[in-house]
Specification:
This protein is α+β, with helices and mostly antiparallel strands. It has one domain. The chain is 46% helix and 28% strand. It has a two-stranded antiparallel sheet with strand order 1-4. It has a two-stranded antiparallel ribbon with strand order 2-3. Helix 2 packs across helix 4. The chain is elongated, with a radius of gyration of 20 Å. 5% of the residues are buried.
Length: 92
Amino acid sequence: MASSATRTRRRARIRSRSVTGVHEPLYYGPDTASALDAVLKLKMTKDPLARLDAARTESALDRLRTTLAAHDTGRGVYFDSHAWIVTALRSR
C-alpha cells in the first residue's frame, strides 16, 4: 500500500521533488543589546513573556541576555541554523 505522502503526491500530479538542506548562521544583530531588541520584537518571544509575572519576566530576560551574550562573536550575534527548501514540479 502506498504511503500517505505518495498518495498525496500522486493526487497533486507531482512528477519530481527535491529537498535541499541549507546550513547558514542566523544573524540577530551586531551586539548583545541589539540582538535582544530584535528578539523581543518577535511574536514567539513577546507572547510567552506577556504571560509571566514581573519576577519571572525579569528572570527570563536575564537568561535570554546570557544566551545571546554566549553567541556574540565580537562581529555579531549568530546562532546555528538549518532549513530545508522543498521543490516540487507538477506534471502537465
